UniProtKB/TrEMBL annotation:
<comment type="similarity">
    <text>Belongs to the sodium:solute symporter (SSF) (TC 2.A.21) family.</text>
</comment>
<keyword id="KW-0406">Ion transport</keyword>
<feature type="transmembrane region" description="Helical">
    <location>
        <begin position="229"/>
        <end position="248"/>
    </location>
</feature>
<feature type="transmembrane region" description="Helical">
    <location>
        <begin position="269"/>
        <end position="294"/>
    </location>
</feature>
<dbReference type="GO" id="GO:0015293">
    <property type="term" value="F:symporter activity"/>
</dbReference>
<feature type="transmembrane region" description="Helical">
    <location>
        <begin position="12"/>
        <end position="30"/>
    </location>
</feature>
<feature type="transmembrane region" description="Helical">
    <location>
        <begin position="113"/>
        <end position="137"/>
    </location>
</feature>
<keyword id="KW-0472">Membrane</keyword>
<feature type="transmembrane region" description="Helical">
    <location>
        <begin position="372"/>
        <end position="395"/>
    </location>
</feature>
<feature type="transmembrane region" description="Helical">
    <location>
        <begin position="175"/>
        <end position="194"/>
    </location>
</feature>
<feature type="transmembrane region" description="Helical">
    <location>
        <begin position="51"/>
        <end position="70"/>
    </location>
</feature>
<feature type="transmembrane region" description="Helical">
    <location>
        <begin position="149"/>
        <end position="168"/>
    </location>
</feature>
<feature type="transmembrane region" description="Helical">
    <location>
        <begin position="401"/>
        <end position="423"/>
    </location>
</feature>
<dbReference type="InterPro" id="IPR051163">
    <property type="entry name" value="Sodium:Solute_Symporter_SSF"/>
</dbReference>
<dbReference type="GO" id="GO:0006814">
    <property type="term" value="P:sodium ion transport"/>
</dbReference>
<feature type="transmembrane region" description="Helical">
    <location>
        <begin position="329"/>
        <end position="352"/>
    </location>
</feature>
<keyword id="KW-0915">Sodium</keyword>
Amino acid sequence: MRAGTFVSWDYVVFACLFVVSSGIGVFFAVKERKNPSADFLVGGRQMTFGPVALSLTASFMSAVTVLGAPSDVYRFGASFIIFGVAYTFVVIATAELFVPVFYRSRITSTYEFVFLVFFSGLGFHVFQILYTGVVVYAPALALNQVTGFNLWGSIFATGVVCTFYCTLGGLKAVVWTDAFQMVVMVVGFLTVLVQGTQRAGGVASVWDVANKGNRLDVFDFDFSPLRRHTFWTISVGGTFTWLGIYGVNQSTIQRCISCRTETHARLALYFNLLGLLTILVCAVSSGLIMYAFYTHCDPWTAGSITAPDQLMPYFVMEVLGEFPGLPGLFVACAFSGTLSTVAASINALATVTYEDFVKQCCTNLSTKASGWISKGLCVVFGVACTMMAVTASYMGGIVQAALSIHGMCGGPMLGLFSLGIIFPWTNSQGAAGGLIVGIALSFWVGIGAFIYPAQEIHTRPLSLSVDGCLQPNSSITHTTAPLSYQNATILSPRSPLADHWYAISYLYYSAVGFTATITAGLLISFLTGHTRSQDVPPWLLRPICNLFCFWSKKNRKMCWCGVNHDLKQISAGFLPGHLCRGQKLYFGLIRS
């Protein structure tokens, strides 16, 4: 059942998003036409922190977040707001641990650091295309089923427009388009919040209803790793999950290294945190307002919609449907996240392919040839991501598995980069062995959880009511509610493995992969002959002990484990842009 359909003004507002995005690509194509190669993949390394910060936020908050986060709050409560803690840790770790190493190394692709370039790069391509296809298809399907918005038209329009402005304008077009789309996301959310609050009876009413429905029970300090969302699973597990996707991800790092200075790169990340928290507050508030509005008639339980992800567009059509153009503004808000994610993926895929494969095979490319090859790669991956979105329509339940697999890969990759950046003793055998063990364990628990879903006693969905729903063939009301987790029973025998190992919170999958990679990597390194600390270039490491021993230079040097982190010597001995010259790919980092 649809709450309403799009009218002409909605399509006009939505079309403006695509027109402006394409226009930005044309602008930078004309502006930078005389220097295509240097500016195309890294923006000439002259970007300022403002647009980069907005771009990072927009690409981080995909349409899956815009539609999925309010639905999660609606069903499970406002504990989702604790992700703000995880975002803070992720941004600090990325700004202080990973970005300084990547920026000073003057690399373009993060996979230039790893010795398993082919394996890591190929894995990145597969999962990035798969994830991008799902990010395009999932919100398009939800919007289509609720609003009647054309499914295939929106998918192909997204693919074509993103490919168009990525190919023409490169990273600069992507960054500035993301900045514009971030503004659209905030405006769209605020429109829904203002009108939704008014229709739900005001702020006080929303708060009171949410409180009575237990949606404001935010802080649950249960240490059990089996619980889906507690303070610890979100703040700790969420940090590992998003750090694997954010801290060492090509899309994020590529934006940071495009900044004119390392300080600008760090500022971009910290200002981006403000954007992340803003979108998070908007998403959580939207979920609470939705619950207050549907407190007596849940459309999902009543059968008006078929999936939780349809709640937000259904709600939007109910509260904004009488205002022509405003539903289109919200759809533009949702697709702004999609456009940003797709554009970031296309640009990152093209960069990794060019730097790690094309440049290694063709060493004497001219500037003009490099520019045309980069543009061609953008077209190729734009088509690939669009086709993946079409393929996702035939995948059914595998779509959820694809998203889980993408997340499970983040933990082991985070562990691999951390081994190289933090631990100077790691060798190639340790890195390879640790990565294999990390992937094996994270896939084991993730696939097991997909086959044996967690019981409600661990997920604990909150009650929903249809007491106020008027049945179509009767004047009386009917009440249904989901089974309470207190009364949940095991319908079929399950093994202890399914009830414990497979039942851990999905937010801990990345932590499992990270911990296994680090532990196995260090153990194998010491068993096979670890790397001598004195042989490791100091600019390829980040001495985190400096953060804990800042008061004592003597203690800091003792914790350097033989690596000389004298910044003056590093500056004198390091030639930016010549990191690979005379060196070999040794382990997780390029080491002499």
